[in-house]
Specification:
Order of helices and strands: HEHEHEHEEEHEHEHEEHHHEHHH
Strand content: 15-25%
Radius of gyration: 23 Å
Number of strands: 11
Distance between the termini: 69 Å
Strand order of the largest sheet: 7-6-8-5-9-11
Mean pLDDT: 92
């Protein structure tokens, strides 16, 4: 009888200990979109979740949930505390994030990892003071790989795009679409397959990764890539400030320590790897991928049609009260410097 009572007391003590541990653990709920196989969901969020759990010694765990909301709504969903964190594309909210278009301007000529590092550094020095992300705390800024033309028809010249219905994601893409004289169709990125399959659009400007991640090789088998890309896409990962305030200072700072530039470059690198894999995948599955050289007529024509976008962007952000010209110069210098280091590291392997 004594041993039985002793066992019950011991079991109760152990259960109480587990209960205390469980109650001390905070769950950070992340809302995400795009397919589960996409680099953002297969690599970026899970890697960051592991970093968070390690940095907080298990006191904060990350729960990743798929949102049925339009990804443009995720800014408000996190700001209102419905979800703790999310990511979205700046261009989904026209006019709010004009400064972040800085990284989308054509001709940067680096991969997503380098562009993401440069964007974060430039944001911290110049763009942050404009407070465009009011109501949110930033976790990372990153870009997708260079935008390419993905169409249901071959593109032998830019004239082939005139009058075609092209899904446009917003941001600098909107102005590019106007200059290429396409009929723009605004829609979330995760709706593109359906739009292509039903013939609502004839093509889309997106990074190569979507050939595999969203199976666009099935509906947009013609891919035309410029040597420096059409544009880059500006994305942001963010968290609710009240959630951060609810944590101990130690845990909040631990989360920040595995975010910022570290998370930005990791995200960019993941999307770069996805682009490389998707190009091979598309070609192996019958896709017709054409990578143009710098002297190709389409490349030269594109440069002519997009000339002056820098000046146009600088004019559009005059009211932001930041030194946009200095920011643009810094972004490009940082991006090219980072790219050179990447080349050195690759050469040392």
């Amino acid at each position: 009888m004594f041993n039985t009572m002793r066992s019950l007391v011991l079991a109760s003590t152990v259960l109480a200990g587990f209960s205390t541990l469980a109650s001390a653990q905070t769950v950070l709920n992340v809302s995400t979109w795009l397919p589960p196989t996409h680099a953002q969901n297969a690599v970026v969020w899970p890697t960051w979740a592991k970093w968070v759990e390690e940095a907080t010694e298990g006191r904060v765990t990350v729960n990743i949930e798929y949102s049925s909301n339009n990804p443009g709504q995720l800014f408000d969903i996190v700001e209102d505390g419905v979800s703790d964190a999310a990511f979205s594309f700046h261009g989904f909210i026209p006019g709010r994030f004009k400064l972040q278009e800085i990284v989308e301007l054509p001709g940067l000529g680096v991969n997503a990892e380098a562009a993401s590092a440069a964007h974060w550094r430039t944001y911290e020095k110049y763009l942050k003071k404009a407070n465009e992300h009011d109501g949110l705390e930033l976790l990372a800024l990153f870009t997708h790989g260079a935008g390419v033309m993905q169409t249901s028809f071959p593109v032998n010249s830019l004239d082939d795009l005139k009058g075609k219905k092209i899904r446009i994601g917003g941001g600098i893409q909107a102005e590019i679409g106007k200059r290429l004289e396409v009929i723009p169709v605004a829609a979330p990125g995760n709706k593109v397959y359906e739009l292509m399959q039903t013939g609502v659009v004839d093509g889309v400007f997106m990074p190569m990764t979507e050939q595999q991640a969203q199976r666009l090789y099935e509906v947009a088998p013609y891919v035309t890539a410029l040597p420096t890309g059409m544009y880059m896409g500006s994305f942001v990962m963010f968290i609710n400030p009240d959630f951060m305030d609810s944590l101990s200072e130690k845990d909040a700072n631990a989360i920040r320590s595995v975010s910022g530039e570290r998370l930005s470059t990791m995200a960019g690198a993941a999307w770069d790897k996805a682009d490389i894999a998707a190009k091979k995948f598309a070609e192996e599955n019958g896709g017709k991928v054409v990578v143009l050289d710098k002297d190709h007529p389409i490349t030269l024509s594109y440069a002519e049609k997009t000339a002056g976008l820098d000046k146009q962007w600088l004019e559009s952000v005059k009211d932001k009260k930041v030194d946009a010209k200095a920011a643009l110069d810094m972004l490009r210098a940082e991006a090219h410097s980072y790219a050179k280091e990447q080349q050195k590291d690759a050469g040392a392997l």
